[in-house]
Amino acid sequence: MQLTEQIGMILLVFALLGGLLWFSKRRGVAAFSLGGRGGRGGSGRRLEVLERVSLTPQHALHLVRVAERTVLIATAPSSCTLLDAPVPLESVSRDLLRSSQ
């Protein structure tokens, strides 16, 4: 194949992928925001990682906010464990403020 044919095929594939992404976003199947937290999808976020602490290279603790609750999750190469049941975000904020003073 000629170099121009190869480049043309690559551009065609990118155009098809872009069209599929546009179509799925328009139909509501896919939702994304290219600008991080901005854009249309940023205000409706219900899941946010508040903090991550590495214990070892393969093990970590994650403090995650789900809607208005905060959960503590431990991760390992072969598992993910919920360590703390959901806690209201206000109590976590008070504890963090109290510990920083």
In the residues, how many domains can be counted? 2
What gyration radius follows from the Cα positions, in whole Å? 21 Å
Segments where pLDDT lies below 50 for 5+ residues? Answer: 37-41
Spatial gap, N to C terminus: 69 Å
Q: Average pLDDT across residues?
A: 78
> What is the subunit organization of this protein?
single chain
Question: What's the number of helices?
Answer: 2
- Backbone shape: elongated
User: Secondary-structure element order, as H and E?
Assistant: HEEEEH
Structural class: alpha+beta
Total count of strands:
4
Beta-strand residue fraction:
25-35%
- Helical residues, percent: 25-40%
How would a textbook summarize the main sheet? 4 strands, antiparallel
Main β-sheet, spatial strand arrangement: 1-2-3-4
Describe this structure in words.
The protein has 2 domains: 1-43, no CATH class; 46-101. A 4-stranded antiparallel beta sheet has the order 1-2-3-4. Strand 2 (60-66) and strand 3 (69-76) form a beta hairpin. The longest helix is centred in the first third of the chain and has 25 residues, at 3-27. By secondary structure, it is α+β, with helices and mostly antiparallel strands. Helix content is 37%, strand content 33%. It is built from 2 helices and 4 strands. It has helices at 3-27, 89-100; strands at 47-54, 60-66, 69-76, 79-88. The model is unreliable at 37-41 (pLDDT under 50).
Q: Which tags fit this structure?
A:
single chain, 101 residues, alpha+beta, 33% strand, elongated
